[in-house]
């Protein structure tokens, strides 16, 4: 989420009273006070010592209830939102209430029906808990902090259960995905290492275009996209993958786009933060999306590398850097929407509004009414604001936000929870919208398009069809539900 929403932070209690929470729980067995002897079934074992894991402490309240503490971002106790942990050694039909007690934000989509996601070893597809099992409230027992409680019934003793704030998308998952793309040997896809993070993780840059465009002498029209500067905003990675999947596909629209545009994509700007299970910060506790003005090569190396590349491209007279889009997720709003900049020239203001309007026509989950343009001083260090001031008046810089929870379609009052697939669908629609923006529709062979249109994007002709990917009806065949998800 680009917006810092300072008023949403629990500034009275920056460390949440958990100054000592600097690491994740590691195979922690939580048994009744005073219990000695061998652990029994039902003495839950909690673990978050894995990639993108986050759980700092567990307090036993009763055999039915446990208080869970989010580990703050590394080197920055102000941010406590993302959680991702496993539970094992459960007893069949064991019913529990988990209270997550030290959120750093007050406002949350948990007030509007959002719920954590869960999977287990025998049911590896993530599912959302039913909203009726989730409660969000100020709690007098925790300094009037906001607490999110959820009820769950374990149903299989041999399963390991995993709970998370939202669908995780790890650094390793990205590396496997990019490796699989490379193995396809596509002549219009290049992958390069743009730099390394503080912990020496790879900063990947993808270039997707017709290879003829890479000729040094040719004019170059560039669209630049970045994601995961805030590591806990995992929906951004699904959107980014949706964009990539579409652009490297054989879809007729993708082929035309590759022939006319160079797409530069950095899928994970903060790989250390993602790996560590932080919500907003890097390893060293920096919110990288506040350091675009003067990133340090040693403290913010990934940001420094991306900024250098963009500045270099901007200085090349043969390069027209026409779009910069930074992808985020939002913790208090629904739908997809955009933030843009404010300009003095009315014509530039109008031109900047074109892309969001076109995207709204292509994606039923994109909200034009939530899209806004601003130049708040506190946002001066964001990619959108800094590059909006650096690049010339033919360039447009946006933050693309998507809800952690759900979207409302036109005329509907029932929110549809996002899934991994529907996040990726929004990414495909973002990519497809460049065809409309550049007015390349006349280059599309309509006969070839028919076989692709329904399976690949949510076009205007089908805005209200097939849009319930988040309601669980499209489960993989044989993918069984949790008893604990169905009811408590």
List the topology elements.
Layout: E1 28-29, E2 45-47, E3 57-62, E4 65-69, E5 84-88, E6 95-100, E7 117-120, E8 123-128, E9 134-138, E10 146-153, E11 161-164, H1 171-182, E12 189-196, E13 202-208, E14 220-227, H2 235-247, H3 252-260, E15 262-266, H4 271-276, H5 301-315, E16 319-330, E17 336-340, H6 346-352, H7 354-362, E18 372-373, H8 383-390, E19 396-403, E20 406-407, E21 416-417, H9 420-437, H10 446-449, H11 453-456, H12 483-486
Parallel strand pairs: 4-6, 14-15, 14-16, 16-19, 17-18
Antiparallel strand pairs: 1-2, 2-5, 3-4, 5-11, 6-10, 7-8, 7-11, 9-10, 12-13, 13-15, 17-19, 20-21
Describe this protein's structure.
The chain has 488 residues and is an alpha+beta fold. Helix content is 22%, strand content 23%. It contains twelve helices and 21 strands. The protein has helices at residues 171-182, 235-247, 252-260, 271-276, 301-315, 346-352, 354-362, 383-390, 420-437, 446-449, 453-456, 483-486; strands at 28-29, 45-47, 57-62, 65-69, 84-88, 95-100, 117-120, 123-128, 134-138, 146-153, 161-164, 189-196, 202-208, 220-227, 262-266, 319-330, 336-340, 372-373, 396-403, 406-407, 416-417. The strands form four sheets. The chain has an eight-stranded mixed beta sheet, sandwiched between helices. Helix 2 (235-247) crosses helix 9 and helix 3 (252-260) packs across helix 9. The longest helix is centred in the C-terminal third of the chain and has 18 residues, at 420-437. The radius of gyration is 23 Å and the shape is globular. Residues 5-18 and 459-478 have low confidence and may be disordered.
């Amino acid at each position: 989420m680009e917006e810092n929403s300072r008023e949403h932070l629990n500034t009275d209690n920056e460390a949440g009273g958990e100054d000592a929470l600097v690491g994740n729980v590691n195979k922690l067995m939580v048994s009744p006070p005073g219990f000695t002897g061998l652990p029994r079934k039902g003495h839950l074992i909690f673990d978050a010592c894995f990639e993108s894991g986050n759980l700092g402490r567990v307090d036993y309240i009763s055999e039915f209830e446990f208080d869970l503490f989010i580990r703050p971002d590394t080197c920055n106790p102000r941010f406590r939102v993302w959680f991702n942990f496993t539970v094992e050694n459960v007893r069949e039909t064991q019913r529990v209430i988990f209270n997550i007690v030290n959120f750093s934000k007050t406002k949350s989509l948990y007030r509007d029906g959002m719920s954590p996601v869960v999977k287990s070893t025998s049911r590896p597809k993530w599912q959302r808990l039913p909203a009726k099992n989730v409660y969000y409230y100020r709690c007098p027992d925790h300094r009037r902090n906001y607490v999110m409680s959820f009820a769950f019934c374990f149903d299989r003793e041999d399963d390991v259960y995993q709970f998370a704030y939202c669908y995780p998308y790890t650094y390793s998952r990205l590396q496997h995905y990019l490796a699989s793309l490379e193995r396809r040997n596509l002549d219009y896809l290049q992958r390069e290492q743009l730099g390394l993070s503080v912990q020496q993780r790879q900063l990947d840059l993808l270039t997707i275009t017709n290879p003829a465009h890479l000729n040094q002498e040719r004019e170059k029209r560039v669209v630049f996209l970045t994601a995961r500067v805030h590591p806990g905003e995992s929906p951004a990675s699904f959107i980014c993958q949706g964009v990539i999947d579409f652009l490297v596909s054989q879809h007729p629209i993708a082929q035309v786009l590759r022939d006319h545009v160079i797409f530069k994509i950095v899928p994970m700007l903060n790989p250390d933060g993602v790996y560590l299970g932080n919500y907003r910060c890097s390893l060293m506790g920096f919110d990288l999306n506040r350091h675009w003005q003067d990133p340090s090569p040693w403290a913010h190396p990934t940001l420094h590398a991306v900024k250098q590349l963009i500045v270099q491209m901007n200085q090349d007279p043969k390069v027209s850097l026409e779009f910069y889009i930074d992808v985020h997720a939002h913790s208090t709003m629904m739908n997809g929407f955009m933030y843009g900049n404010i300009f003095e020239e009315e014509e530039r203001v109008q031109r900047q509004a074109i892309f969001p309007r076109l995207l709204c026509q292509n994606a039923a989950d994109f909200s034009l009414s939530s899209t806004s343009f601003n130049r708040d001083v506190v946002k001066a260090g964001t990619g959108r604001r800094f590059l909006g001031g650096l690049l010339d008046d033919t360039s447009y810089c946006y933050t693309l936000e998507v809800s952690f929870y759900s979207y409302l379609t036109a005329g509907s009052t029932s929110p549809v929870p996002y899934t991994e697939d529907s996040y990726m669908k929004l990414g495909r629609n973002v990519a497809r919208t460049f065809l409309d923006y550049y007015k390349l529709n006349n280059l599309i062979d309509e006969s070839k398009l028919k076989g692709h249109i329904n399976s690949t994007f949510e076009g205007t002709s089908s805005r209200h069809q097939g849009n319930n990917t988040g309601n669980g009806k499209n489960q993989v065949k044989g993918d069984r539900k949790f008893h604990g998800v169905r009811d408590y």
